[in-house]
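All the exercises in this workshop are built on plain-text protein records. A record pairs a protein's sequence with a compact description of its fold. Backbone structure tokens are a discrete shorthand for how the chain folds in space. Once this layout is familiar, the rest of the handout is easier to follow. As an example, a complete record with its sequence and its structure tokens follows.
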Amino acid sequence: MPGRLTGVEDASERRAPNPPVFLYDGDCAFCTSCALFIERHIPTTADVTPWQFADLEALGVPQADAEASVQWIDPASGGAGRAAGPAAIARLLVDAGSYWRALGLLVHLPPMRWIAGPAYRLVARNRDRLPGGTAACRHPQAERDRIARR
């Protein structure tokens, strides 16, 4: 299911021909729940997509990076348009505008920046234990594929 999950009218009206992409783990129920929240409540111009359905090579994102954390890729910004983890979330929020922009900018400032990285890693390491998380969340993609082939 590539592309937008539910669509946001005002964001789609201002969508660029080559919009930013926000990648998340589509095999993780917790990550998918977060992506659904983004789609329903945050009017970003980004294409919110599971990395498993994205052309990672074309986006310039190694699979290991996509597995490790959410990714923000803005093709219009070139090399400077890529961020991971909390920085990717901050860019998505800034892109959304309104009060979301202020929240995204706040994530870039100390002490929030100092807190965001460790907090993100804590959530990522324990996403299988969070509401909506599943056992699949704790395994890297290669191991998920191996288990599925059994």
